[in-house]
Amino acid sequence: MYSDYCFQHTRSLLGLYLAKSGIPNSGKGLFTSKEIKKDKKICDYKGVIVSTEDWNKGGEGEYGVQLNKREVLDGRSTQSSLGRWANDCRAANKRGKHC
Fold first, then answer.
1. 27, 31, 53, 55 - which has most CB atoms within 10 Å?
2. What's the distance, CA 30 to chain centroid?
């Protein structure tokens, strides 16, 4: 989904695939089918940078990565990136040590 390749080539060429997340109350997540070296770029994560305050007004939304204490990269604004499935863990799941 949202890759330049079909799901089979995304897995074989990029080593990435989508599957149901094992984190409680979560949807799909981005997983690897091969080892990826530390500091290697996995894929693009596109979206709009919004304030954490604005992000939180929308509830515990999907498709966002916390960049720092003040900003979130909001992937809800795009359908063109495989990276949007690599989400930051929700606060409730962090508290429950599921991440």
1. 55
2. 7
Three-state DSSP state, 95: helix
Report CA torsion sign: 79, 82, 86, 43: negative
Alpha helical stretches, state H, 1-99: 7-9, 52-57, 91-95
Whether the Cβ atoms of residue 60 and residue 4 lie closer than 8 Å to each other = no
Helices assigned H by DSSP within 2-90: 7-9, 52-57
Encoded tokens for 61: 């939304």
Using alpha carbons, select from 32, 64, 62 the residue that is nearest to residue 46: 64
Q: Are 66 and 72 in contact (CB under 8 A)?
A: yes
User: Are 41 and 33 in contact, with CB atoms under 8 Å apart?
Assistant: no
Distance CA 77, CA 49 (A): 10
The whole-model pTM stands at 0.64
